[in-house]
């Protein structure tokens, strides 16, 4: 296994629901499981399960075969063995060499997610990166017209997927532009069209700007189940983008190249929520 394959596999697993699916399939062994059994075992809707299975299949972690009218999904045991061996060979010497060396604070990459109201999308992105960044990243979020309120549905969706949500709060962008700013930023990512034209020159640290346009779940009208499905879709989109971000060799990229990479991530993993009304996330 090479490093690109390992990063792809690990990025696909860096999400609570996908790890639950994969654990279930590992336990099922070579017999595998039909989609209905997986959805029941993981508490997922059919559409959400389909999305996660496709991500795991794209990374080579899951295979499927037809049995009558059903598709049976199985964990790719050969790839799992190769990934474990790769991690053992690659990480064990690195851990040994660095076990007495703490990571200096200046090596942490500060990322600010900016939305319109800092109540939905940007809050979710902050939580996801702080979880998936595993200490290499420090994520913040703010709103250009912050509402002071955080969407309860966004918090419920985060908790259900295994992401931290208890400390979430809506914050004004001015917290990061004042002389005593909360952090010196390396990267600023706008997630709403309202914030897409943000002048990052006013932010300390001359951060690199990326724009990840993401549909606004607060503007969607429907039943509670339908709205929850939209939030699920937005969270999945953010997880995919952030997983790609965390896999980049950021310290070796010059600002121009990094900006191109951020733009490519924004184009690659857009969500597919249809014609949402504009909101204040």
From TrEMBL:
PROSITE patterns on file: HTH_ARSR_2 (PS50987)
GO molecular function: DNA-binding transcription factor activity
Keyword DNA-binding: no
A Pfam family it matches: LMWPc
Keywords: Arsenical resistance
Superkingdom of the organism of origin: Bacteria
Positions of the HTH arsR-type domain: 1-95
Gene3D superfamilies for the chain: 3.40.50.2300, Winged helix-like DNA-binding domain superfamily/Winged helix DNA-binding domain (1.10.10.10)
SUPFAM superfamilies: Phosphotyrosine protein phosphatases I, Winged helix' DNA-binding domain
InterPro entries cross-referenced by the UniProt entry: ArsR-like_HTH, HTH_ArsR_DNA-bd_dom, Ptyr_pPase, Ptyr_pPase_sf, WH-like_DNA-bd_sf, WH_DNA-bd_sf
Record GO biological process: response to arsenic-containing substance
Record's keyword annotation contains Cell cycle: no
Protein name (record): Transcriptional regulator, ArsR family
């Amino acid at each position: 296994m090479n490093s690109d394959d390992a990063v792809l596999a690990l990025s696909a697993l860096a999400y609570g629901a996908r790890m639950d699916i994969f654990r279930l399939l590992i336990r099922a062994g070579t017999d595998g499981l039909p989609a209905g059994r997986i959805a029941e075992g993981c508490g997922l809707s059919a559409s959400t399960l389909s999305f996660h299975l496709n991500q795991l299949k794209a990374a080579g972690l899951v295979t499927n075969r037809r049995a009558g009218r059903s598709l049976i999904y199985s964990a790719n045991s050969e790839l799992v063995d190769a990934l474990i061996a790769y991690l053992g060979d690659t990480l064990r010497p690195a851990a040994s060499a660095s076990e007495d060396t703490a990571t200096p604070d200046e090596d942490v990459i500060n990322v600010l997610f900016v939305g319109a109201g800092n109540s939905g999308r940007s809050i979710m992105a902050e939580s996801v990166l702080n979880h998936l960044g595993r200490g290499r990243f420090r994520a913040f979020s703010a709103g250009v017209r912050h509402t002071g309120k955080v969407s309860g549905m966004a918090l419920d969706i985060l908790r259900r997927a295994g992401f931290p949500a208890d400390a979430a709060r809506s914050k004004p962008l001015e917290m990061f532009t004042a002389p005593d700013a909360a952090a010196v930023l390396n990267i600023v990512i706008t997630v709403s069209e309202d914030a897409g034209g943000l002048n990052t020159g006013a932010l300390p640290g001359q951060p690199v700007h990326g724009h990840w346009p993401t549909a606004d779940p607060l503007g969607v009208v429907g039943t509670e189940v339908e709205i929850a499905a939209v939030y699920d879709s937005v969270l999945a989109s953010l997880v995919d983008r952030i997983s790609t971000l965390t896999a980049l060799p950021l310290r070796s990229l010059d600002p121009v190249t990094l900006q191109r990479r951020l733009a490519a991530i924004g184009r690659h993993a857009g969500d597919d929520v249809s014609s949402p009304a504009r909101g204040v996330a």
